[in-house]
Specification:
The chain has 119 residues and is of the alpha/beta class. 30% of the residues lie in helices and 14% in strands. It has a four-stranded parallel β-sheet with strand order 1-2-3-4, with helices on one face.
Length: 119
């Protein structure tokens, strides 16, 4: 990139070292994990809705959402490295959702506004 004052900035001057490809997958309003396994397989980070707890799975189906346990089970079965849970119902505390997920997939976290996650 060149500027009016004749300065030139090359990408190598402002970017860090190249890294091999990373895989970020974002899933929302899924209702089921059927068919997602291959898409999320071996992702570095999976950001996925965990709107309900497993005890309310029937409500989750009614509204087209997943439970924290379902999201975590998908992550485990698909070789995901980190699970980030989002789109959580206000009827639960984040800690309840996280507890259910970490029983199945320990490297889980709940997304918070303005989080920065290194991939």
């Amino acid at each position: 990139m060149s500027f009016a004052d004749a300065r030139t900035v090359d990408a190598e001057d402002v970017l860090g070292p190249l890294e091999p490809g990373k895989k970020l997958v974002i899933v929302g309003d899924a209702e089921t994990t059927e068919g997602l396994s291959e898409r999320v397989r071996d992702s570095d980070v999976l950001v996925i809705e965990a709107t309900f707890l497993e005890r309310d799975a029937s409500i989750a189906r009614d509204y087209g959402h997943l439970t924290a346990a379902e999201a975590a089970t998908l992550a485990t079965a698909s070789g995901v490295k980190q699970l980030v849970l989002t789109h959580i119902s206000g009827r639960y505390g984040d800690e309840e959702i996280l507890e259910e997920a970490t029983k199945v997939f320990p490297n889980s976290r709940v997304a918070r506004d303005f989080d920065r996650i290194v991939i």
